Amino acid sequence: MVELHEGLLYETRPDGKVLCRVCPRLCIIGEGRLGVCKTRRNIGGKCYTLIYGKVCSVMADPIEKKPLFHFHPGTMALSLGTLGCNMRCIHCQNWQIAHADALEDGGQLGDLPPEKIPEVARRRGCQGVAWTYNEPTIWLEYPLDAARYCHEQGLYTVFVTNGYITEEALNIIGPHLDAYRVDIKGFRPETYKFLAKVKNIEPIFAAAVAAKFKHGCHVEIVTNVIPTVNDDEETLRSIAAWIASDLGVKTPWHVTRFFPYLELDYLPPTPIQTLNRALEIGREEGLEFVYIGNVPGHAAENTVCPNCKRVAIRRDGYLVEEINVREGFCAFCGEDLNVVMAPPAGGGK
Q: Which of 106, 110, 150, 177 has the fewest CB atoms within 10 Å, i.e. the most exposed one?
């Protein structure tokens, strides 16, 4: 039985429906109904989350798997997932949980109270906690409470997110996050409409900027490059240029290889030459750290100092083999690498 927990961001309308303000969908939910994320329900004119303290995935992962390459390299993150999502991506690798209904499928969820998370993380050898696998924005109240306990125990906190969050919700969770790893799936509304069934994409870009400059989060961007969908030069160049201008040239950009899946199983895997071209485009737009993902053994897995050109962090997949970074700077020449190496004294923010 899924337990109830009243949501933080909603308003009750005169007709008894509730307006959820957690994500830009701004769902208007009738009595007994669920929002698009399938995790928030109107009961008696109040909006309840059905997934507070409910988990279906608890794993100890290398932080590089998120992927985060400039944030506590070589550490392990306790990775937590639940049910539901505010997007409906037609190529989702975790669709079994992301497309699930918390009301109908809640039987697969287990309990993990927020105050227990630091203990679980320590027991599994983790230095931080990441909310991932499905969209953590819809889990808002739970990461908020858990992040406070994590910081008290000196653990870092991470959102692995599609970025579809309202400014109001980000203002609540942002001060309690240390890293914000966000997907940028394209640069045109029609791309997002096709891939994720959302139209209004401006909040995604605005949230990434606010996460970095308003809330002080370390930000990294991922683009899964999909043949015929978002692999054209205009799209890739637009994303790279936006990262450089709005987030800064030292912001890591991961361009990852797509593999056919779900409703896009008719497409081929991304050609390596397409990813290599994306790498070139990123560098042409001034980005200093562009990585190629899902291609084991590619040289673009490594962090190379943009000044002295020596390998600052050497990787083999998710395994970190060598770190030549001192307090975020290149150990060889002193160049700023925008690498977060250790939590602040006493924990996170």
A: 110
d(CA 229, CA 80): 30
State pLDDT tens for residues 269-281. 999 999 999 999 9
CA distances from 310 to 69, 255, 280 (A): 16, 22, 18
Q: Where are the CATH 3.20.20.70 domain residues in the chain? A: 54-330
Let me know: does 302 contact 313? Beta carbons within 8 Å. Answer: yes
What single letter denotes the amino acid at residue 60?
A: A
- State pLDDT tens for residues 12-56: 999 999 999 999 999 999 999 999 999 999 999 999 999 999 999
CATH 3.90.770.10 fits 54-330, yes or no: no
DSSP 2: P
To the question of pTM greater than 0.85 for the whole model, the response is yes
